[in-house]
Amino acid sequence: MTVILHQFPISHYCEKVRWALDYKGVRYRVKNHLPGLHLKKVSRLAGASSVPVIQNGKDVVQGSAAIISYLDRHFPDRPLTPADEAVAAQAIRWEAYCDEQVGPHVRRYCYHTLLDYPDLVIPFFAQGGPLWGKPFLKAIYPKLQGVMRKAMQIREPQVSESRQALEDAIATLAREYESRPYLAGDGFSRADLAAASLLAPLLMPPEYGLDWPQSMPEPLQGWVDQQVPLLARYADFYRTYR
Question: Which of 53, 106, 231, 232 is most buried (CB neighbours < 10 A)?
Fold first, then answer.
């Protein structure tokens, strides 16, 4: 049986699940949704409108952390959750830290700039979707942009707060990695996968699967360039484990 992943290709939380599926060697196919049109479809399937969602037979699991736990239970090869209970708890705590202190702030701070460039983001939103996806998104883009800015609170002072929160989280993770190669235990785990995948939009790794531009628009790219020395480890994780 093939797992179905409902996703937005651009979503770093969906990339977190793609990476977990690939790392574990789970056979799956993706169902790419268009922003806005996904709301009713995903809600009917999973109870809420957010992605990622996986289907495995009659099982439906929503949310990247819950999905990784499910995958480790049902597809035990190459586990991402450490076997030792104390180390597993540490990995899950760091994953939760990244889910809460990295993921939302990457999304808000990046979209603050990117939403002003529809020719850049519409192909991200439409990638792997229906042929009519791009013209449809272009037609509704003014409304879609407004809805996204409102839903994600992409406005001041929240944008500046997200930039500061991101800088703090990147520094916190860098201090942890200074003393050890992995966040939990002596091997790559769901904690490291979460950190790398949720910071990946800043790195634009080819393994992510998007057709990235050569650089992001300013002022986003200038800020990313300042963070590069603290992001090298995540590029290494992509090269080694992705």
Answer: 53
